[in-house]
């Protein structure tokens, strides 16, 4: 079965411990719903650096990554359906970029 990378952009950190618990519960429920297709629940990402042929930039790039998840899905349409339930989309503060991890 193909593997898909869900790359998160945006979102934000909870402002209170109570909000953090609510957010973590939403992510936990979404990941539980993926079932055996969840290969790696991932993690949030810290500030990234962009390495180019001419140097290193400390700005996190033009669209900084905020986290990732790796899932098994039958095809891209199935991966999209899974991603549409992702809590990062709540409130319109984040996005999910999906790419198939190509077997080499």
Structure class: alpha+beta
| Rg | 15 Å
Counting DSSP E segments of at least 2 residues, the number of strands comes to 6
CATH architecture: 2-Layer Sandwich
CATH fold name: Alpha-Beta Plaits
The helix fraction, in percent, is: 25-40%
Write the CATH homologous superfamily: Dimeric alpha+beta barrel
Share in β-strands: 25-35%
For this structure, what is the CATH class?
A: Alpha Beta
Give the rounded overall mean pLDDT. 93
| Main sheet characteristics | 4 strands, antiparallel
Spatial strand arrangement across the major sheet: 2-5-1-6
Describe the global form.
flat
| Low-confidence parts | none
* Number of structural units classed as domains: 1
What distance separates the N and C termini?
14 Å
Which helices and strands appear, and what pairs or packs with what?
Blueprint: E1 3-10, H1 17-34, E2 38-40, E3 50-52, E4 55-57, E5 65-72, H2 76-83, E6 94-101
Antiparallel strand pairs: 1-5, 1-6, 2-5, 3-4
């Amino acid at each position: 079965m193909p593997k898909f990378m869900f790359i998160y952009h945006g979102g934000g950190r909870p402002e209170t411990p109570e909000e953090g618990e609510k957010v973590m519960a939403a992510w936990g429920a979404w990941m539980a719903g993926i079932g055996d297709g969840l290969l790696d629940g991932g993690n949030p990402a810290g500030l990234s650096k962009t390495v180019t042929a001419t140097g290193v930039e400390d700005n996190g790039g033009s669209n900084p990554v905020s986290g990732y998840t790796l899932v098994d899905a039958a095809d891209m349409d199935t991966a999209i359906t899974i991603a549409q339930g992702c809590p990062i989309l709540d409130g319109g503060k984040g996005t999910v970029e999906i790419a198939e991890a190509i077997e080499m």
